[in-house]
Amino acid sequence: MSIRISQARKAAFKVLLKFEKGEIKFLKESLNQYIEDHKMQKNDLALATDIVYGVMRWRGLLDFKISKFSNKKISSIDKEVLIILRISVYQLLFLNKIPPRAVVDEGAKLAYYFRKRSAADFINGILREFLRRRDELDKASSHEEDIDALSNLYSHPKWMFERWMSRFGLKGVKRLCKFNNEIPPNAIRVNTIKITRSQLAELFKEQKIECEFSKYCEDGLIVPSLQGITQNPLFKKGYFYIQDEGSMLVSRILKPEPGENILDLCSAPGGKTTHIAQIIGNKGLIIAIDNNFRRLLMIKENCSRMGFSAVKITCGDGRECGSLIKMNFDKVLVDAPCSGTGILRRNPEIKWARSYNDIVDLKKLQKEILNNACYCVKPDGVLVYSTCSIELEENQEVIESFLSNHKNFILKKITDEIPQEAKKFITKEGYFQSLPNIVDNSSPDAFFVAKMKKVS
Ligand SMILES: C[S@@+](CC[C@H](N)C(=O)[O-])C[C@H]1O[C@@H](n2cnc3c(N)ncnc32)[C@H](O)[C@@H]1O
User: Fold this and answer.
1) What CA dihedral angle connects 160, 162, 168 and 171, to 10 degrees?
2) What is the per-residue pLDDT across 422-444, written as a single tens digit (0 to 9) for each?
3) Are the C-beta atoms of 63 and 70 separated by less than 8 Å?
4) Ligand 1 in contact with 267 (CB < 6 A)?
5) Are residues 286 and 154 in the same domain?
6) What is the C-alpha to C-alpha distance for residues 294 and 300, in angstroms, rounded to an integer?
7) DSSP assignment, residue 181?
8) Which atom of ligand 1 is nearest to the CA of 250?
9) Are residues 310 and 232 in the same domain?
10) Where are the alpha helices (DSSP H) in 181-270?
């Protein structure tokens, strides 16, 4: 018997399974690959994307609900079966336009299609019980305020919720988690070497693509739907790069000038490298280093699509190559590998993949890269350190330790490099950091940036 199954749910299942099996690090890569390999209707594509990201965003809450109606512990439910349950419960909770009966039927079909026939009754039983008793469960859990209950309700791992609670307090952590569970605005950076922001907005309008000027960075446009955008001829012509405004502000803070020599030590896939090239009008030299060769090729592709010849790429380890590059740079950027806790809104998979030990390990790596980077800065030159993490260990503590060991560097307060609207993110020490007490859903991703100057 052949089973007709929804393309969207099939795609969502496959992408989520790859993540659970540890075959991919980022959902985006796997979803894009799936889309490239299979012809999908626009509606299916939208639903698949919604389910993949929705399930990952709400995984903690979904598992909590499933556990209430399952006679097995979540950890002992077969991976494939658990994914089918998460996909189904997500739709029942968040996608009101899909009739519950269709969700339950599709759940059973998925089980058959992916050879989990023996689990069909188990899945069916949980979904039906969920539909019958969901209100009762909601009432019971709305009174619970302990860390276990709250981390489930706000769908974050307990260790993360707990550590943020001691830093931001209950109100702050709830606000931060709520922010992380929102769907982020989609921003693109206009390649002003080729086209102005208004001209690109006009071209989008002709294609009936909605967009508006971004408010935190003068190079951006907010485009509500980016579906299929990389297939758009305007993208292929190199008119823009998909990038959040928080990330755009980093290159603005570096403030590169035409004719300068610039080193970008952790550069792939090239968001900031290409932005720097754009700001200097492609006049100067940018050496872009990364230790991941595959990601480095993405810079090459981006530079050739966008028309930047000033960028030279090199594969290398940012902890060592400083001594190899016998050159003093005007500006050096360390956009360090980090835990990514500032971009959970955009990459919800990160919260389930990380542990506290990662923060400890990353801090060590970040310090090593920064310690090496400083030897490439010329006297009076500038060193910028950035992460998309909100953790003190990866940000302030790295900088404080660096400055106490390198007396020839001073912290330069960030002031006029960024537009007025973004200045609310400057801390009293002079760092750039968007934190939960000031963010709203239109805020950029939470980036941390420190700017330092070599004084001798
Ligand atoms: C935050 S990402 C950089 C994003 C990039 N700057 C952009 O704007 O598109 C960090 C990068 O550091 C690279 N990386 C990790 N460890 C490294 C090391 N030891 N040396 C150089 N690069 C490293 C990763 O491969 C990753 O591409």
Assistant:
1) 110
2) 999 999 999 999 876 655 667 88
3) no
4) yes
5) no
6) 10
7) T
8) 8
9) no
10) 197-206, 233-236, 245-254
* Tokens standing for residue 202: 């006009």
The verdict on the CB of residue 194 being under 6 Å from ligand 1 is: no
CB 334 within 8 A of CB 319: no
The answer to whether position 437 is within a domain reads yes
What sign has the CA pseudo-torsion 281, 286, 289, 293? positive
Express as a percent the part of the chain with pLDDT over 70.
96
Task: Report the 10 Å Cβ neighbour count for 3.
Answer: 11
**Claim to verify: residue 296 and residue 423 sit in the same structural domain:** yes
Task: Indicate whether this model's pTM tops 0.90.
Answer: yes
388 is catalytic: yes
The total number of structural domains in the chain stands at: 4
How far apart (Å, rounded) are the C-alpha atoms in residues 447 and 439?
12
Residue with tokens 């598992």, as numbered in its chain? 63
Could you tell me if 187 and 244 are in contact, meaning their C-beta atoms sit under 8 angstroms apart? yes
User: Ligand 1 in contact with 251 (CB < 6 A)?
Assistant: no
Query: How far apart are the CA of 136 and the centre of ligand 1, in A?
Result: 48
| 206 plus 250 within the same structural domain | no
